[in-house]
Amino acid sequence: EISLLENGDMTLVGERGVTLSGGQKARVNLARAVYRKADIYLLDDPLSAVDSAVSRHIFEKCIRGLLVDKCVLLVTHQTQYLKQCHSVLNLMEGRVVSTDISGINDQWDAKGMDVQESKVIEDYERDEEEINEGTNKEVGEERSHGIVSIKTYVNYFKAGGGYVFTLICIALLFISEANVVATDWWVAD
Question: Which Pfam families does the UniProt record give (predicted)?
Fold first, then answer.
């Protein structure tokens, strides 16, 4: 996705730069953390803001790939990855509930769910099929950028005080600009 940005990895992100989606922000933050080449990484749920296919890719290629020799503390709700972790600490309301994967499996079984058959895995398989069919989600994000419907503007003006107030503001804007132009014209003579 960096190739979609005008200045590549040097693109400014934030208030004066490019506006990114939640998933893109999560990936940029993760990439910045990995670039630091630290010994210990604290990843606070980087998989929650992305879809299941991207989540699996991040886990396999980044966490289990690039960070394989590092100490990684991964906070996540996506339990399908827990079997691939060295240690698991399950917390509930700030307290340790269990320290192994079996405690988590017991909780899922009590709810009538299995870690391997969770909805996230079903979503992953569905998303993988869509990707294989040739759909391109990045293009969809790019197209939706900057498109605002007229209805949005109408609702905005209604919320701001109605049509009369909006017309008064526009009239005052024109009067103000006319005043600036007149002052410049008068000073120029």
Answer: ABC_tran (PF00005)
